[in-house]
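I am still getting used to backbone structure tokens and would like to learn alongside you. Label the sequence line and the structure token line clearly, so we can match residues to local backbone shapes. Go ahead whenever you are ready, and we will take it from there:
>
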Amino acid sequence: MTPSPGNEQRRATRKPAATPAAVVDVIRDRPLGHLGNLSASGMLLIGTQEPRLDAVYQARLPLPGPDGQNAAIEVGIQAQWHEPAARPGQTWAGYRIIAITPADAARLDRWLRL
């Protein structure tokens, strides 16, 4: 999805994922999708299944640290929208971050500034 400037509703700038990062539903221990982009308040995932709108998930995703090593963060996310992706069988889905620990928020903030 490429939103037009008139319907852009994001408040935080999103950073594209430089490498494929699998995002996992911690409760069901299954993939939610791959990270497309991420901000302090939300994320875009590319997956094979549509999320239920307004559904809440506990998600884990890897973020590269300052030393180059990946460290996982966990966030509570809520599905906001979804639509078919350009590739058949894939779905783009937007999520809002609704819960994050202070330590994981600091790690996310550091990654966003890299």
About this structure: The chain is about 10% helix and 50% strand. The helical segments are 102-113.
